[in-house]
Amino acid sequence: MDKSSLRQKYKALRRDMSLDQIDELSLQIANQSLKLDIWNFEFYHIFLAIENQREINTEYILQIIFGKDANVVIPKMKGKDLQHYLLTDTTKLKLNQWKIPEPVNGIKIDPEQLDLVFVPLLGYDTLGNRVGYGKGFYDRFLSRCKKDVIKVGLSSFPPEEGVLGVEDFDIALDYCITPKTVYTFSQG
Asked: Which residues does ATP bind (predicted)?
């Protein structure tokens, strides 16, 4: 299936889910994440959910990271790129024009410092190819991270058999965590 069709499919599937369903699936995803050996890093980048898009609620994973005394980094849109800020007790958040919670200000973090990135997505395939919203924010951002940064998708759904239209600049996932299992993708 091509990216455009997958975007439509998963947006429709999400629209049919209640916020309570999303919350329950998000808790299950956080529990599944504990099965991965990813909890000994210093810098974790995570998206904050767009509630009206029915994205995975990342609050549960945030609590795991804070419980490990690790640093949480969150994105802020700037033009066609993302900037990255340390999330602290004093970080003020504000919804941007797309209803994405973003830091108002704070300590900037370079993408090269990140050890692991939790990546938002609409769909993905059995090879770890991700379908996002189509603006390229995360592919541009991930291309600036260190080569061995771990890329973890979060999804309520199992993978597709394949995504048509994968481009050279698309960056695949290393893992995708769902409510029932963790998918591992071998790159290269």
From this structure: 3-7, 130-138
